[in-house]
C-alpha cells in the first residue's frame, strides 16, 4: 500500500490517511501567542504560486502556515490556492512529510533541470525565503528542521527537552508519542515556547470532562462526609440520652 502510483503522471503520491491526520494536529495546535486567530492561515496540500512570470509554477507543501495575513481571502472566502504576488507575505513555516517518492526533493538533493521550475528546496529557501522548514519522516520518526540563517537553511538544534524554539511566534515544536483521533503513534505538534503542550480540541474536551468528573466526585465525597458526620452526631445524641444527659445543659 506504500506509495502506489497514480494514473496521473504529475501526481506525486496518492492521498492517504496519514497526510490528513498529521496536518490536522498541526492545525489544532498552531496557536502563535502574538497573532490573532483571524491573522493566521494554515493550509494542507494548497498550491503556492510564486512567480508572476510563470503562473503555472507552484509548490504544494504538505502543511504550511502564514502569519500576518487574513485567514480568509479578502476577509470572506476560503482560498483555492495561495498566490504570492497577490498576498505579498511568504509562509512562515512549511512542513513536508517524507515518503520514498518525495524524499530527494524534500531534502534538497534534486537539481533543477534546464527549462524546468526550480526545485522545492530552491523555492522555499531562495524565493519564498521561508524562515522555518520542517521535514518529518513517518517511517523513521526522524525530524529534520531547518532555520533560514543568512539566506541559507541551517539545521536546528533542539533544547534539552527535545523541542525546537520558534521565538518569533512564541512557540516551539517537537515530537510527541500519544493518541490523536484514535491513533497512537509519534506525531509532530506545536508547544508553547516554554514547552507546555498546546491541547487539541479533543484533548480540551477530555480535560473538561475529567475536570467535571473530578468536581462531581469531590461533591459526592463532601456529601458523604456530611452524611457520616450527621449519623455520628445522631448516635452521640442517642448515647447521651441513654445516660440521662440533657443536651441543652451541655450548651
UniProtKB/TrEMBL annotation:
<dbReference type="Pfam" id="PF05685">
    <property type="entry name" value="Uma2"/>
</dbReference>
<dbReference type="InterPro" id="IPR008538">
    <property type="entry name" value="Uma2"/>
</dbReference>
<feature type="coiled-coil region">
    <location>
        <begin position="205"/>
        <end position="246"/>
    </location>
</feature>
<keyword id="KW-0255">Endonuclease</keyword>
<dbReference type="GO" id="GO:0004519">
    <property type="term" value="F:endonuclease activity"/>
</dbReference>
<keyword id="KW-0540">Nuclease</keyword>
<keyword id="KW-0378">Hydrolase</keyword>
<protein>
    <submittedName>
        <fullName>Uma2 family endonuclease</fullName>
    </submittedName>
</protein>
<keyword id="KW-0175">Coiled coil</keyword>
<feature type="domain" description="Putative restriction endonuclease">
    <location>
        <begin position="40"/>
        <end position="176"/>
    </location>
</feature>
